[in-house]
């Protein structure tokens, strides 16, 4: 008897003799482990810490965040309304609400709107734009002056009448646009729709300042030891936006940004995981019962798995102190691999009972049959996991340490606790699954058709090699997330923008001269739309522009200062009827230079409104709505114009701190923002933009650079880990099995299954990503484990006239694979693309691994069929 056999013989005797002590002690240790986990195992959800801080891009990012902390890990609010005035008002209200909720937000600001920018707004226009605006305002001066003194519907239509009757004397340039807007307001009010006349657009129709979308940025307070660190801030943000949206029709506020994307990602995973988890649990229980045909064995296996999870979590708490978003998947990996150990022990024990062995003999034979192969499986799989420990991908490094240790925990429980529990449960009777006489064509196929299987396997392997160049890694985490999530939709819309893209890059310089020179070089790139530096915030040609602004202020200033902004009611029906008479007269005499169709349409709309007014249950409310629709935004336009007429000459030294600190850090570091020219939803554009900028400035930082660098670090980590672990496993198998042929029998089917899995992913258009790449360690572990079990059974345990697919080992491998696959296949139904792709990859990979192990491996063995 070999030394290992003697050890297993002694172990069996010890377990049966001290079964109660082993079970009680194990349960007590597991309970203590859970208690320790409760207070000592946190969740670090900071994705920035998933990679080594020593990587160059991590150091560059840290430097930028220390210099300009206000923009790092921020929530982006995208405010959209039909008019620039409503957008500005809503953004200001949102900013005020955020500032009043300091327990949830560290800081908040609107990049393009503050008191300084409002006052100096006209200086930022080009000379041509300012000249055109001045011409429009000069033309509209009588109109504006009259309205400031007569701010009501009566005053508006009186000055409109004068404008129509006296051509080219009052607001002639803006009159057609104003009449069209008033017509729209009348129609929409009559049909109970919301609409506001945009006076800012009418007075300055082609200005880039007429933006109906504004960005508000807020830095949330987060708890990284919570599974969802930004929950409080995100919930408060949703509450604030809901309240604002209720108070303003046609207002849309989207919430996005990396923080919100991560939060909604966890929400979508959690929502789907609950149903997925329940479905998987029910499916696993049914499969295990089908496997064992015994409630006792099912119960023992589940208890062993739960204890393994408890002890592994305890080790994680003791060794690391926290889980990250990657290492939290240790539970899934442990269940997938740990159940394999328990199934093989339970099936071999059941096989002994079915042969009428005593409980003691059945346990000893089960340990003797699978003890060595389970040890070899645990050792090789642990090596595969431990290979990730020295990589730069800290998230997977911690997962490798936890999962590697968990393999030995699972091995110990399966070889000690599980037999002890089985000894106490004492399965008294079990029927054989299938006798050796009941041989089907399928069971003999691997040996009967060895030559055909070998040819097909080699052909498939070679064919799959042609697909390997098309294997890709998608480093953009946005593409992993639920595409229907509001934050993802908003984020992707921003990625099409050349001014508001969240994928803008940043570079740091030590002086204004250096920043200017670098910005000039960056602007020459085909993928760069523009650059922004502190120097760009100083408006050019100020002296020339200030002369124009001073003339405007002399013309409009006194009138604007007298405007009180209180909208007084009018006799709406009387006012409209009087204006209708004016229109009829003008149309009859063809006196106006305005398009006749415009006047006729307006006349018809007024008539329809008067009919709606007569039919309305509350005509006063309808008239007030019309007043607000036409004149409601005028005070904001007047106020904005009045502020902008107070512009003054300034230089870098005159910029307020709340602006300059966004571009010049207290330590004297200058920031350059680099905006993309192309749609960065397209992966090729994103990669080209990041690489182009890095070729000019290697230290540039931002999400595109971080995602590409993270993706490359992950790929390098997995390549290094898999190559080293594969080499170590190969050496270990050669040493322990002392046979090149047996080693190839274990590894060959695994290589073929891997090639087939990657090829199917290529055909399905599923790239590897940060989520589904985690499936690879599980497939490696299962492939090696299954290969060892089948190879060991073929050469050590196969009885006369018995075929490999009839053995309890083959049954164990089959049900272990099916159980693992069923626990993950439901992930494919979760709307999160990363998780669903992991479910698909696992389902495909486990299927190929099972087929290659049960069919290809025996076909390449030296065994021949016995008829």
Write the layout of secondary structure elements.
Layout: H1 3-17, H2 19-40, E1 42-44, H3 56-67, E2 75-80, H4 84-99, E3 105-109, H5 115-119, H6 127-149, H7 153-165, H8 175-190, H9 199-203, E4 213-220, H10 231-247, E5 252-256, H11 258-292, H12 295-319, E6 322-324, H13 330-354, H14 359-386, H15 394-425, H16 441-448, H17 450-465, H18 486-495, E7 505-509, H19 512-523, E8 528-532, H20 542-561, H21 572-589, H22 596-615, H23 619-631, H24 634-644, H25 657-660, E9 670-676, H26 683-696, H27 703-737, H28 740-764, H29 775-797, H30 808-825, H31 833-860
Parallel strand pairs: 1-6
Antiparallel strand pairs: 2-4, 2-5, 3-4, 7-9, 8-9
Helix pairs in contact: 1-14, 1-15, 2-12, 2-15, 4-10, 6-7, 6-20, 7-21, 8-22, 8-23, 11-30, 12-13, 12-15, 13-14, 13-15, 13-29, 13-30, 14-15, 14-27, 14-29, 16-31, 17-28, 17-31, 20-24, 21-22, 27-28, 28-29, 28-31, 29-30, 29-31, 30-31
Helix content: 55-70%
Looking at the chains present, what oligomeric state does this protein adopt?
single chain
Distance between the termini: 32 Å
> Structural class of the secondary structure composition?
mainly alpha
Query: What is the percentage of strand-forming residues?
Result: 5-15%
Q: Rg, please?
A: 37 Å
* DSSP E strands, number: 9
Going across the major beta sheet, what is the strand order?
A: 3-4-2-5
Number of helices: 31
Sheet with the most strands? 4 strands, antiparallel
Q: Which of globular, elongated, flat, extended, rod-shaped describes the shape?
A: elongated
Instruction: State mean pLDDT (0 to 100 scale).
Output: 85
Low-pLDDT windows of residues: 435-439
